[in-house]
Prior knowledge:
Elements: H1 45-59, E1 66-68, E2 78-81, E3 96-116, E4 119-137, E5 144-150, H2 151-164, E6 179-181
Antiparallel strand pairs: 1-2, 2-3, 3-4, 4-5, 4-6
Amino acid sequence: MTGEHPDLGDWSLEVLGKPGQVRPVVEAPHPVLSRAGAEVDPTAAETVRLAADLVATMRVSPGCVGLAAPQVGVGARVFAVDVTGHPKALTVHGTFVLCNARVVEASRWRPGREGCMSVPHLTGDVKRAGRLVVEAVLPGTGAPVRLSTDGFEARAVQHEIDHCAGLLFLDRVAGAHAIYQRKVYR
């Protein structure tokens, strides 16, 4: 994997040890969604289990490209992202989980429509960086990483970092005029 996704080194989901369990997703106004999550020990058994559970929950949720620990009721700075196959994705690092992530560079700010499993009936226009660099640690190994990404994947990472900080996309919209009822296709 080193050559394929150099930002993540040789980390892969196998380091988590076993498949995770699907957890229920909490919805706003659940209080865990509005509190900043705590930093975690990325090598602790409960963090590794949480990382696996986030991936499992994300994979059974249609259209989901990211999921943060607060969305499954855990106040921790851990999230999973996978934009593989999404038509808007330019850069794709596959499935990855980051702990204690922080943005170190952000540029090329653009508005874009976002939705969220924790706000299932609404979408909104949110201005996000189109180019992004984050520093974090990997669950299981504890290895530090510096992830560079852009476009849709950068948007997804920022959305999940916000969850870990106790923010929803609704906290980032310019106003009520930028919030919409989610369209349901049958």
